[in-house]
Amino acid sequence: MQKQIIECVPNFSEGVDMNIIKQITNEIEKVEGVKLLDVDPGKATNRTVVTFVGEPQPVIDAAYLAIKKAGELIDMSKHKGEHPRMGATDVCPLIPIAGITMEETVEYAKKLGKRVGEELNIPVYLYESAAQKEDRKNLATIRAGEYEGFSDKIKEANWAPDYGKAIFNEKSGATVIGARDFLVAYNVNLNTTSTRRANSVAFDLRENGRVKEENGKKVLDANGAEVREPGLLKSVKAIGWFIEEYGIAQISMNLTNISITPLHIAFDTAVERAHARGMRVTGSELVGLVPLKSMLDAGKYFLAKQKRSVGISEEEIIKIAVKSMGLDELTPFDPKKKIIEYVMQADSSKKLIDMNLVAFANETASESPAPGGGSISAYVGALGASLATMVANLSSHKKGWDDQWEYFSNYAQKGQTIKDELLKLVDEDTHAFNKIMDAFGLPKNSEEEKQARTQAIQEATLYATQVPLKTMQVCFSGYEIAQAMVEKGNPNSVTDAGVGALCIRTAIYGAYLNVKINASGLKDKSTAEKLVAEATAILQQSNALEQEILKATEAKM
Known about the structure:
By secondary structure, the chain is of the alpha+beta class. It has helices spanning 18-29, 56-73, 102-119, 139-143, 146-153, 195-205, 263-276, 292-305, 314-325, 335-338, 340-345, 357-365, 373-396, 405-440, 447-477, 479-488, 494-519, 525-556; strands at 5-8, 11-12, 34-42, 47-54, 89-98, 124-128, 175-179, 184-190, 210-211, 213-214, 217-218, 228-229, 236-243, 248-255, 281-287.
């Protein structure tokens, strides 16, 4: 069963005194099962965004301890900052990441809110998906009036907190807790110091837009309510502000649904609207972490605008995204520290594919039985797919072939996907072998232990048979790229595509040998025969297709 993972992104009203922030994050890190991903302080906003992940109960335990510590250390009666705020822990959203629904996440938000309200005497309001009232879904509505206005606001019947007493907490203020989709906090830099002009662009962008005016007066509807002109971007909140730390004005955006308005669209629209108002966007910055998909989508978007192939490595796509949006203008942008998937992988054990070529060859040649033929087969297959992909990229950029760039880009993108999958299988095959060794090492003193050991060996053997079969299947899909590049690719690189086909065939044959040897250890002969039959069929098709591609290669030379 998939492990349930949620993310928590509390915003604390302290961005100058890092000793205070460290004491708060220490509370988070002492909870077992929780991983602190990012701490992002802002001096001008006097606010720090903290990101951590884990299973639900440890996460809300850590959130409670952090809120408690912030309440002890931060005095809101003395707080000043550019960002709207209402409490020492201003907002604390929970975000479903894996294996958990939004509805389940809401229940954890309520559980956390109840504990904070009752045990810490901090008024708690629930927002977004956890909101108990429709007018509390929007954080800005709850936070209206900010800390300074809350001593009066909390006395209003409609603004009694969801948890805790309706008594103003002068030191800690109030806290908003909720459950929401992944939000990207994103600031766009302008070549102006004017907050008013930055706001003019922000109002153009944000979904809520601006109040409509005619002849300098607000337009009202039949009921006397203000008429609004909607902004250009759905699921976007935005304001303009001046950041003294950098000496520039920014458009500060919250992208609340990046599938509706992705990062690159927010950036490009800001560029267009700033230009229309006589300003220029000079760069941008991400506050906190961003999903990998957002960066890859952005990089591919800007490559496509240049009519360049998007079938390049993940690293290069991210580099294009960073440079296109100027994400490194104010501070260096380190993907390993800013992309959530990379941060979560940071503590993982060393992989074979992380080694350089010499180290990998030395490790293979050592007395250790792994990596063996299965891992090498997957790696050879990855090289074959890489060669075919290289030809696709070269063809996409060939002078005089500009009208075909997208055709070759599509093949290059397929090739990158195949290559990446095979690189994963390099380590997966070694992992499968290690599982068998671990199973053989289990105790066998009692009859019960013997049965458990036998079952573990069989399960590991089945897995070790399925992995090279998967390698064969993925490798075979690489022929499509090699064949297309031999037939229609850059004629100067036809032999590279041919060598790619040779590598793919070698990889398939090598993985086939591993399927056969591992299947021979299965006691379930019906399953073993089925797996070997599938592998044999792939091998036969591979042999025929490789010969066909090589003949076409020879004919082109």
